[in-house]
Amino acid sequence: MASAGFFQTVPAGQDTPFMQWKRGIAMQRWKQVAIAVLLIALVWLSAWRCEVHIATFVLGVNKGLPIVEMFFPPEWGDILGMLPALGVTTVMALIATIFGMIFSLPCALAASTNIAPKPVRLVMRCFIALERGLPEIVQLLLLIAIFGLGAIPGLLALCISSIGMLAKLLADGIEEIEPHMLEAVAGTGATSSQVVRYAVIPEILPALLAQGLFRFEFNVRAGVILGALGAGGIGYIMSTAMASLDYQRACMATLLTLALTFGTERVSDFLRSRVLRGGMLK
Amino acid sequence: MLRVSNIVVTLPNGKRLVDDISFTVGRGEFVAVLGSSGAGKSLTLRCIVGLTKPNQGEIALEGPTGKTYKTTTRKASELRRARRHIGLIFQGANLVKRLTVLENVMLGRLGYINPLRSWFFGFKDSEARDAMMALDRVKLAHFAARMAGSLSGGEMQRVSIARAIYQRPLIYLADEPISSLDPKNAESIMKILQPLSRETPVIGAFHQPALVAKYCTRAIGVRMGKIVYDGPAQMSPRELENIYGGTDSEPLITMGDTGQQPPFYGSDMQRALHEGVIA
Fold this sequence. Notes:
The complex is a heterodimer of chains A (about 280) and B (about 280).
Chain A: H1 17-50, H2 54-70, H3 79-111, H4 118-133, H5 136-147, H6 151-175, H7 179-186, H8 192-231, H9 234-243, H10 247-280
Helix pairs in contact in A: 3-4, 3-6, 3-8, 3-9, 3-10, 4-6, 5-6, 5-8, 6-8, 7-8, 8-9, 8-10, 9-10
Chain B: E1 2-10, E2 16-25, E3 30-34, H1 41-49, E4 56-62, E5 68-70, H2 76-83, E6 86-89, H3 101-106, H4 115-120, H5 125-137, H6 153-166, E7 171-175, H7 183-199, E8 202-205, H8 209-215, E9 218-223, E10 226-231, H9 237-244, H10 266-275
Parallel strand pairs in B: 3-8, 3-9, 6-7, 7-8
Antiparallel strand pairs in B: 1-2, 1-4, 4-5, 9-10
Helix pairs in contact in B: 5-6, 6-7
C-alpha cells in the first residue's frame, strides 16, 4: 500500500476519456439499430397498406414470360407501313429543333447579364424558368386541350421546351464571353446591336449548333413519348398496337424506334465533331 | 490633340483611384504611361475611351478641323461618335476569334456603318481593300482569310493594331500592348507603333522602362492615382524608383500639390472594376 495511487482503480461513477468513448460507441450502435428497425417497419407498413406481395412479382414473371414470347417474331411486313410514321417523328423533332435554335438566340441575348439591361433580363429569366419548369408532357396535355389531337400540339410542345433549354444554355455561353472582347468592339464606336452581330454571335454560333444537335437527339426521344400520348408518329403506332394487344406489331415499332434513336445519335455525334473542329481552327 | 483635365475616379467608399490627373498629348508624340499595377494607368486609359466614367474632370479630343469630341459625355450617341476617333489596342488583343482576320480589321470602322447594313449586308469590297492595306502595314496581309483564333499572341496583337489603323483615329490608345508578349514580339510591336506615332499620336500603358526609353518620346509616371513624373522617356534610376518605389509609402518627390492622403492600393481597383462599381 506504500505506492498508493499507481495502481489506483477508477472509482465507480468517475468519468474517464475511455469511458466517454465507450458510451459514445454504444450510443451510435443503438441509433443504427433504431434506424434499421424504423426503415423495416416503414417498408412493411407501406407494403401492407398498398397490398404489395412478393407473390405478385413471382406470378408476374411467370405470366410475363409467355407474353414476352408473344412479341416475337416482329411483324416484318409492317415495316413499310410504319416508315411514314417514323418520318413524322423525325420531321417533328427536326422542325422543333430548328425553331428552338432560331428563337432561343434572341431569348438568350435578353437573358444574359453582359448584354441585356436588368429588367429585361429578369423577365426573360423568369420566362425561361417557367418554360423549363413544365415537363413536355404537361405542355402537350395543355396544348392538346387547345388544338386537339395530332402532330401540331406535339410539335409546339417540343418547340417550346427546345427554346427554353437552348436559351438557358446559350445565355450561360454568352455570359462567358470575355468582356474585353466586347469592349474592344464597342470601343470602336459600334452600337450594341453591332457588338451582338460581330462579337457575340460569331463566338456562340458553334455552341448553338452543337447544343442544337444534342437537342435534336432529345427531341426524337421525347417525340416518341409525346406520340404515344396522342401526338402522332411512331409513338402513336406503338401505343395503339399495345392497346390492341398486337404485340408483334409493337415489337416492330420498338425496333424501328431503336434504329431511329441510334441513327440520330450517330449523325449528330458526327456533325457535332465537325462543327467543333471546323469552328476552332481553319 | 487629346486633353485630359483634372479627372478623378472615386470608389463608393471615397478612395480615389485616379486623383486629379491632367495632361495633353499632341502631334508626333509617343507617350508611355508607367506605374506599378493598380497605380491607375489602365483606369486613366479606360476613362479616355469612356469605358469608365470619371467622377470629375473632362476628356476632350480635338480634330484637325477644330471639332471636339468628349468621351466624358453622358449621351450614348455622342460617346459613340467620339469613340470612332480613338484607335484601341488592348492587352491580349481581344479579337473576335471566330471571325476571319480581315473581318476583325474591318470591325474598326463599325462605328461609321449603318447598323442595318452591317446586320444584313456586311462589308463592302472597297472597305475590304482598305482593310487589306492596314493589314499590310503590320505585315500580316497573307493571313487575311485565316480565323483570328488560330493566330499566335504576337500576330493577334498586330491584327488589333491593323484594326486601329484601319479606323483612321485621331489618337491611338494602347493598354499594355506588349505585356503578354515575349521580348522579340514586344520589340516588333514597338517598331510598328513608333512610325505610327509620327502620323497620329500614341498613348500607351507600359511596364518596360527599357523599351519605353528606346522608342517613346515622352513618359508619364503614375503612382497611387497621381502623376509623379512627366518628361522625357529616358529616365534616371532615381526617377524610376520614384515611380515604382520600394514600398507603398509616400513617393519621394511629388509633382503638383502634396499633403493629400495616399488614395488606394491595387487590389481595391481590380475588385471595383470586376464588380462594375466604377463602370
